[in-house]
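Exercise 7. Given the components listed, write out the predicted structure of the assembled complex. Treat all entries as one system.
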Amino acid sequence: MFHLMIKDFRIQRKKSFLVFFLFIYILNFSNTESSVLIFSAITALIAFVMAVNSNFNGREGNRAQQSLLLSLPVTRKEVIAAKYFMNGVWFLAAFIPGAGLLLIKDFSSFQTGRPMFYLNALILSLCLTYFLMSVYYPVYYRLGYKVAQTAAELFGAISIGLFFSGLTNFTFLNTYLSAVSEQTVLLPAAAITLVAVFISYELSVQFFSSKDF
Amino acid sequence: MENILELNHVNKKFKGFALEDVSFSLKKGFIMGFIGPNGAGKSTTIRCIMDLVHIDSGDIRLFGESFHNNMKALKQRIGFVYDQDVFFDDLTGEKNKRVVAPFYEQWDDDVFYRYIKEFAVPLNKKMKTLSKGTKMKFALAMALSHHAELIIMDEPTSGLDPVFRKELLDVLLDVIQDESKAIFFSTHITTDLEKVADYITFIIDGKVVASEETDELLEAYSLVKGPKSAEPQVKTARPIALKETSLGFEAFMEGSEARLLASKPNLRLERPSLEEIMYYMVKSGKKN
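Answer.
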């Protein structure tokens, strides 16, 4: 399974890394508690784009590449498991530079002592990342890469558009998050994500295992 | 001798096409050619063997084991070449090798680079910039670089120039010197098979109509040629197919039936080529 994960890293398109420019947005953060949501959403979006793009490399499309993969000494279940594990890697690849950038910003403005922000952001962005993937992969394995790619690109474009259109779009969420404790949100978010990932993984295995290539 | 590949009564139904009761076997140390017209089921059969397509019923055995038991371990022992571009188009040959090689416990870089040099494949170019023939050479080098015992190839000679086709056949003959190995390949270019294949499996409309030694298959049929005046004589011998030519006629017959006509002075018996056997079998729609 490790080789399958390395494969995803190796076939990642260079242009996918452009999505990391979304972190520029973080530099404009006001240091309010509600920015946890923005930071988490950006991190999840970056991880999502990276994960989705690691499924497409070349003109031949997905069927040919699945033929290659399944002709190698791997099981179908391992292919799926590698995808779900690799989400975690893409998440870390997005979270670490983002959090690092924020830390630098905090230190340069002599603002320290908000470790809970990073912990909350870590949990929330991980949940968001896996939740997006939980929706994406069953679609990808059931309806094929064209439908999944189109839907993912649409979602990515709309999300990026929303970020750059200004924070005001998130006012209702900011207001809600200010009103409740972040920890109150995190626990249900984690629980929902766990259930979603479990169902999503089982569906993906079922779809992929029954498919002919 | 041990069968390295065995298909027993394999069935697979698709919309508008089905593999029906496909059975044949290949022993270690031999090359089997898999022939049939377009759409006959050659690629589908190969995909069934590789477990890319789930069979409805029947059994496929690789190295004496049912492939359901441990396909992952069995695939370590298989080298494959497909008729489509399966490698990553946006990566160079070298990067594709780096992706695929770690999956094989017995990957041998020395063998890989030797074949790459022999086939003159540029490893620093992206796959999408390579010609079909060069991609096929790359795929072949990949298939041969992990000491696979069974090489499965789907139309490996299509898109190749005659010079490399000859080289490829030499490589296959070289590989098969190791008697623990076997090669199974489908092709349209039957002249290639006559040179190297020990066995031929012939499939039409999803059904295997012949699976036997190449020489036996070639002996099993005859072409009978003669003037138009001799045509009624030949028709009574129930030819499989009969075609009128500018000089007379050409009849495709069972070898045993044809030999009964050998004494007729105005008839000439010829051994058909694989291509002719394939042509007449398809034309006549003959099924076993």
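Discussion: Residues 2-6+37-209 of chain A form one domain. The CA atoms of residues 85 and 121 of chain A lie 20 Å apart.
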